[in-house]
Design goal:
The complex is a heterodimer. Helices cover about 35% and strands about 25% of the residues of chain A. Chain A is an alpha/beta fold. A 6-stranded mixed sheet of chain A has the order 5-6-7-3-8-9, sandwiched between helices. A 3-stranded antiparallel sheet of chain A has the order 2-1-4, with helices on one face. Chain B is mainly alpha-helical. Chain B has one domain. Chain B has 12 helices and no strands. Chain B is globular, with a radius of gyration of 19 Å. Chain B starts with a helix and ends with a helix. The chains are: A alpha/beta, B mainly alpha. At the A-B interface, helix 1 and helix 4 of A face helix 2, helix 5 and helix 12 of B.
Chain lengths: ~240, ~260
């Protein structure tokens, strides 16, 4: 049973350079001089990106995160993905997580499209044999034809995005994290991509999507969490 | 507190088990650096070879040494040094340079350290061609202790691992560290027995080598290769540093591992 559970979860980003204590010298000086300057060091400037969040997502939940820029949606996704550990509070994530954040990460433009399918697959945690079985489907869906055997620097930006999308959506997962509904390529491809992503999301047992698109949220989500300034303003269940 | 220790241990363990990722990335980085060049990574070999061929005869004469023996010493020392100095110099950017990865994908942090050490090992492997050529043309006295070579290599690589992890963490937090380190490494090249050897020191000055941990790092790889007598002190220093360094770095890693992404 997939489960995402947070209790009083907070995330504070330290801002270095504001107090000038990013340099080793300043820290040494703070130790050396003690007293007055040490107070300066402990008064570090931080930004509270997520503030005391408590929630529980279960099997079947389609969670939509909404809120203005800077409300903490993406940070929350990063925390759920395990990129940042909460500064305070608890977080439990049970189930295999596929994060759709940074789907082009690790692609090598000197390598061929085929090599890049393996590169991305490896980063997503798949063995070579798993990718072997998927290659055909991925190449076929991305529709890049003979370009598959050419270095990726010869691709148009649309083609590389299509390939990245095809790899990211090639394997079903228990929990899916997504920052904005992925949309790539030209008009024809967008339709194809939407169908593929919808079917993947439908098969997932738990989904968390951050989005600015009210129509998509209404269409896909049964739980809507409204964040403002890192706090939960409202939780709406449909 | 116990939890952060077990998480740190898991990071190191899971990181290691992802050898497909770090070994692959290490290769990829080497290939990228030399992409579309005709001889590719063998530029590493070639530039070392040229350096040995050019410096060996000249410095051998300048330092009043037997030229054949000096070339052996120089070739082996230079290659070990580039492995050690390369690893230490890049340690500062092991996490800072991987910011794009660290902020987009939740991999154990140790993956980036394994990647760094294995990339430098791969470069060392390219350089061994030079050692083969030199030792073929100028064979050493004996190969009796050659079986100790892998042990020496593992001890040094282990030491470089904790150093890279430690320096990587420190550099993510304090951005002056990489500059400081590269400065120290540069000076260390001249202060360590690479273009000179410990035997050239007058007995009263022998401590210049003995108090330099880098001398012992070089020695445990060099001595087995050149059939030189076993220098017990070097093995003791390298093994103790491995234990002390690993333990203290592990404590720091447990304490600050989760903070590293916040520092980037």
């Amino acid at each position: 049973m997939p489960l995402v559970k947070a209790g009083h979860l907070s995330v504070d980003f330290p801002i270095f350079g504001m107090t000038g204590n990013r340099s080793f010298k300043k820290s040494l000086m703070n130790i050396a001089t003690g007293g007055a300057l040490a107070k300066d060091a402990s008064n570090r400037v931080t930004v509270r990106a997520l503030d005391d969040l408590s929630f529980e997502f279960h099997e079947g939940d389609r969670v939509g995160l909404v809120g203005h820029n800077g409300s903490g949606k993406s940070t929350l996704l990063q925390v759920l993905a395990g990129i940042y550990e909460p500064t305070s509070g608890t977080l439990t994530v049970e189930g295999r997580v596929t994060s759709m954040l940074g789907i082009t990460l690790g692609m090598d433009f000197e390598a061929t499209g085929l090599d890049n399918i393996y590169l991305r697959g490896r980063l997503m945690g798949f063995d070579r044999s798993v990718v072997d079985a998927l290659v055909e489907d991925i190449a076929d869906f991305a529709g890049i034809g003979e370009f598959l055997h050419l270095p990726m620097r010869t691709y148009s930006s649309g083609m590389s995005m299509r390939l990245a999308f095809a790899v990211a959506t090639s394997v079903e997962s228990e929990i899916i994290l997504m920052d904005e509904w992925l949309s790539v390529g030209d008009a024809d491809f967008v339709v194809k991509a939407k169908a593929r992503l919808t079917s993947l999301v439908d098969k997932a047992r738990l989904v968390v999507i951050a989005s600015h698109d009210p129509a998509m949220i209404a269409d896909q989500c049964n739980v809507v969490i409204h964040l403002e300034h890192g706090k939960i303003v409202s939780v709406t269940k449909n | 507190m116990n939890k952060s220790y077990s998480k740190a241990f898991l990071d190191l363990q899971k990181g290691f088990s992802m050898y497909g990722i770090w070994w692959g990335l290490a290769w990829q980085e080497i290939k990228q650096r030399y992409s579309r060049s005709v001889i590719g990574p063998f530029w590493i070999t070639l530039s070392t070879g040229v350096m040995v061929a050019a410096m060996g005869p000249l410095y051998g004469v300048l330092l009043g040494q037997n030229v054949a023996g000096y070339i052996q010493h120089l070739a082996v020392s230079l290659i070990i040094w580039s492995f050690i100095s390369g690893s230490i110099n890049e340690a500062g950017s092991v996490f800072v340079g991987a910011e794009g990865y660290i902020k987009q994908i939740a991999l154990p942090l140790s993956v980036y350290v394994y990647k760094l050490i294995s990339r430098n090992l791969l470069m060392l492997a390219h350089n061994t061609t030079v050692v083969f050529v030199v030792l073929f043309l100028l064979p050493p006295k004996n190969f009796e202790l050659i079986w100790m070579l892998p042990i020496g290599l593992v001890l040094v690589a282990g030491n470089l691992f904790w150093m890279a992890l430690l320096l990587g963490m420190l550099s993510a937090r304090f951005r002056d560290i990489p500059q400081l380190v590269s400065n120290i490494v540069q000076v260390a090249f001249f202060l360590s027995p690479i273009i000179w050897s410990a035997e050239m020191l007058p007995p009263g000055r022998r401590y210049v080598a003995d108090f330099n941990p880098l001398f012992h790092f070089i020695e445990v790889i060099r001595a087995p290769l050149l059939g030189e007598p076993l220098h017990m002190l070097s093995w003791i220093v390298v093994a103790s540093l491995l234990v002390i360094g690993s333990v203290s770095t592990f404590v720091l890693f447990a304490r600050f591992r989760a903070r590293v992404p916040y520092w980037l």
